[in-house]
Structure formats: structure tokens, C-alpha cells
């Protein structure tokens, strides 16, 4: 018998020629050794079928004898080859089968080792959802809402959970540059009037319980250290002019208690006074702080005269060209004129303040024209008289 001759040539002619043309035999590709094992197993299965495990002693003997029949290294009856597809791939389970599987797995808990293996097998590109972002209508949760029970379970599961530093960094990077969809919206706009009112009531109840609550000195120290220097969220940032003006307006007319005033006096040392003075002068120079906060009535009258005459002007412009820089009352750039509306009391009529004379001299030296008007003159002044005074310079 030649080497390449098939091993089942010894079968009866009738059986060999019972296959139709193109039909693949069931034992194609199997070795003689495997075929012997199949025959042996077939004989055992016949015995099992005959006895049907009625005899308990036989059942035990059979199980003990064949305990290691499918141990690692044994040849499988029908070994899977590369590219082999399972017979039930793509076949949906019936509802009855699903129910059976659900009952079988009910209450079953995987070990930590097994969970880690599952996690590793579905990590990164191995996950079937890798690189996919299901949002809007594509999301499986679109139009659905969690029940109150589910929300409670999620809350309990997340209670006391602390994200790792790596996870926090990932969350930070993923949300960087994104604006919250809740920013600039009220509770009423987000949740409706009924829910907004309910949330407000709950918040008031929570706050009532904290009335008179005080942190311990240790807690205060920890809070202070966590927000000092570079740790502070506002470190290195500058407030806009708009923000500063809003704060000034908010604090205007606000009364402080005697205790607060005393604390402020105690904390206001000579060193701090010096630093604050330098900072204030810098902010005035940059035009961030405008003094005074409100225009006086005589300044407003002069401004109205200029508007009627159609002359463009600026108010409280910082004069940085001179040594004793300050914010002038009115500046007319086209005519290079500085107008000062001096109050009789504050500017010491009729003598005037020394600093006023110094600044006037410095402005004239720098090429500006200065018009100083006293309070009593402005109050009785008409537009024609103001025009004459303006032309006289």
C-alpha cells in the first residue's frame, strides 16, 4: 500500500461509493489515532445508553474512570481549526433560553482575578466600543431616564469613591476647553419652575442646619494652606476692570459691624499700608480703578456743556506725562485742554491746594492748557460764559 493512499481504503465498496459527488466525508482530515479514539468512545457511549446510568455503582465507576478524558494535551474529538465558525454564531437565543441563562447566572459572583481578566480583555482597542462616541440619537440611552431606584443605587455605589490622580487628569483633559451646558442658566431654565422651587426649598432647609456653624482652628488652617500661593485657583490671574467695578458697586453703602472694623484696623499694618498704597497707585495709573466712583454735580454740568457744543472729551483720564500723575476731571484731546472742576471746600477756595498748583505747572510745561473752574462759578455759569472761558485759554 502506497504512503499517499487513504487510510479508510479497507472499507466495503458499497459504503465507500455511497457518497455523492462533491460531498465531504465526516472524517476528512482526521488521523488514524483520532479515528480509533472515536470508535472507542462510541462503544463507551453505547454502554452508557444501554445502562442509562440506572446502576449508581456503574455511574460512579464510569465517572472515576473517565475523569481525565478531556485533560489538557488530549486530542479533542472535533478540534477547532483557525477560521472555524461556531454553529450558533449570529443565531439569536429564544426568550426561553435567555430566561434559563439568566436564572443560571443569578447571584453568581466572579472572583477578583476573573474580573481583572475580563477587564484586561476589554481594555483599549480590544473593546468593541473603542473610538466610538454615541451621542444624541445614536446613544442607546437617548430619550430614556433612570428610575428613582436606579439613581439611588448609582448614588450608593459612588458614595465615598475617590478617583485616582490619573483618572482626574484624564477627566480634566477630556473636559478642557468645553463649556458646561448649564453655564449662565438658572434652575428655572434648566429644570422648570416646579422643580426649581423644590430645589430652592431643599437648599434652604440644608442651610438652616448650618446656621452658626463654625470650623475648628485646625480645619481653618488646612483650608488656608490648601489655597495659599500657587494652589489658589486665581493665582497669577488679573481681574478685569468690569469685575473690579462690579465689586466696588456691590460694596458701596454696605455697613460693616464694629467687630469687623476693628479686625480690619488691626490687620492694616504699616507694611500692608505701603503695599496697598503702591498697588492702588498702579491700578489708578493703569485705569483699572477710577476715582471718584461717581461724577460730582459740577463735573456733570461741564460735561453737558461740552456735549451741547459738540466737543469730544474723556473723563478721569490718567495723566502719566507728568511727575505727579493723577486722574484729571475732563480731557479734550483735540484742543489739548485739561479741565478741573474744583470744589470750594476740598480744594481750599480761594487759595487752592499746593498739589493742584504743582500739577497745573507740570501740565503747562508738557504743552497742555489747563482750565480750573471753582464750584460757585460753575453753579451760576451759563453755556455762553463757559464757551468764552474755553476760548480764552
Kindly describe this structure.
With 393 residues, the protein is mainly alpha-helical. The protein has a domain at 297-392: VSR Endonuclease (Endonuclease, Chain A). 48% of the residues lie in helices and 4% in strands. The chain has 17 helices and 4 strands. A 4-stranded mixed sheet has the order 1-2-3-4, sandwiched between helices. It is elongated. The protein starts with 12 loop residues before the first helix and ends with a helix. The model is unreliable at 1-7 and 9-17 (pLDDT under 50).
Which parts are unreliable, with pLDDT below 50 for 5 consecutive residues or more?
A: 1-7, 9-17
In CATH's first tier, which class of the domain at 297-392 applies? Alpha Beta
- CATH fold topology of the domain at 297-392: Endonuclease, Chain A
Indicate the multimeric state. Answer: single chain
Order of helices and strands: HHHHHHHHHHHHHHEEEHEHH
Strand order of the largest sheet: 1-2-3-4
The CATH architecture of the domain at 297-392 can be given as 3-Layer(aba) Sandwich
Largest β sheet strand count, sense and barrel closure: 4 strands, mixed
Distance between the termini: 133 Å
The CATH superfamily of the domain at 297-392 is identified as: VSR Endonuclease
Amino acid at each position: 500500500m502506497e504512503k499517499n493512499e487513504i487510510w479508510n481504503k479497507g472499507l466495503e465498496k458499497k459504503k465507500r461509493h455511497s457518497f455523492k459527488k462533491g460531498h465531504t466525508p465526516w472524517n476528512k482530515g482526521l488521523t488514524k489515532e483520532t479515528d480509533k479514539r472515536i470508535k472507542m468512545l462510541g462503544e463507551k457511549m453505547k454502554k452508557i445508553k444501554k445502562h442509562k446510568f440506572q446502576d449508581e455503582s456503574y455511574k460512579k465507576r464510569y465517572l472515576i474512570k473517565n475523569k481525565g478524558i478531556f485533560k489538557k494535551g488530549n486530542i479533542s474529538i472535533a478540534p477547532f481549526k483557525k477560521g472555524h465558525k461556531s454553529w450558533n454564531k449570529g443565531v439569536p437565543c429564544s426568550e426561553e433560553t435567555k430566561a434559563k441563562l439568566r436564572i443560571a447566572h443569578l447571584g453568581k459572583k466572579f472572583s477578583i482575578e476573573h474580573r481583572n481578566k475580563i477587564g484586561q480583555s476589554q481594555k483599549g482597542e480590544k473593546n468593541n466600543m473603542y473610538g466610538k462616541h454615541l451621542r444624541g440619537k445614536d446613544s442607546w440611552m437617548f430619550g430614556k431616564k433612570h428610575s428613582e431606584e436606579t439613581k439611588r443605587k448609582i448614588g450608593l455605589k459612588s458614595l465615598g469613591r475617590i478617583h485616582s490622580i490619573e483618572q482626574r487628569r484624564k477627566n480634566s483633559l477630556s473636559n478642557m476647553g468645553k463649556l458646561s451646558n448649564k453655564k449662565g442658566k438658572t434652575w428655572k431654565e434648566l429644570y422648570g419652575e416646579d422643580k426649581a422651587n423644590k430645589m430652592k426649598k431643599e437648599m434652604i432647609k440644608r442651610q438652616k442646619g448650618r446656621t452658626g456653624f463654625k470650623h475648628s482652628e485646625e480645619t481653618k488652617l488646612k483650608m488656608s494652606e490648601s489655597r495659599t500661593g500657587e494652589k489658589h485657583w486665581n493665582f497669577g490671574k488679573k481681574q478685569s476692570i468690569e469685575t473690579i467695578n462690579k465689586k466696588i458697586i456691590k460694596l458701596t453703602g454696605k455697613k460693616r459691624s464694629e467687630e469687623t472694623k476693628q479686625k480690619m484696623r488691626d490687620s492694616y499694618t504699616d507694611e500692608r499700608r505701603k503695599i496697598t498704597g503702591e498697588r492702588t497707585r498702579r491700578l489708578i495709573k493703569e485705569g483699572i480703578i477710577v476715582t471718584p466712583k461717581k461724577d460730582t454735580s459740577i463735573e456733570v454740568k461741564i460735561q453737558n456743556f461740552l456735549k451741547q457744543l459738540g466737543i469730544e472729551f474723556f473723563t478721569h483720564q490718567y495723566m502719566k506725562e507728568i511727575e505727579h500723575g493723577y486722574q484729571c476731571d475732563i480731557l479734550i484731546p483735540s484742543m489739548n485742554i485739561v479741565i478741573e472742576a474744583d470744589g470750594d471746600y476740598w480744594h481750599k477756595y480761594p487759595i487752592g491746594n499746593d498739589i493742584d498748583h504743582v500739577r497745573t505747572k507740570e501740565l503747562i510745561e508738557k504743552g497742555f492748557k489747563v482750565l480750573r473752574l471753582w464750584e460757585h462759578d460753575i453753579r451760576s455759569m451759563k453755556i455762553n460764559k463757559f464757551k468764552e472761558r474755553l476760548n480764552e485759554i
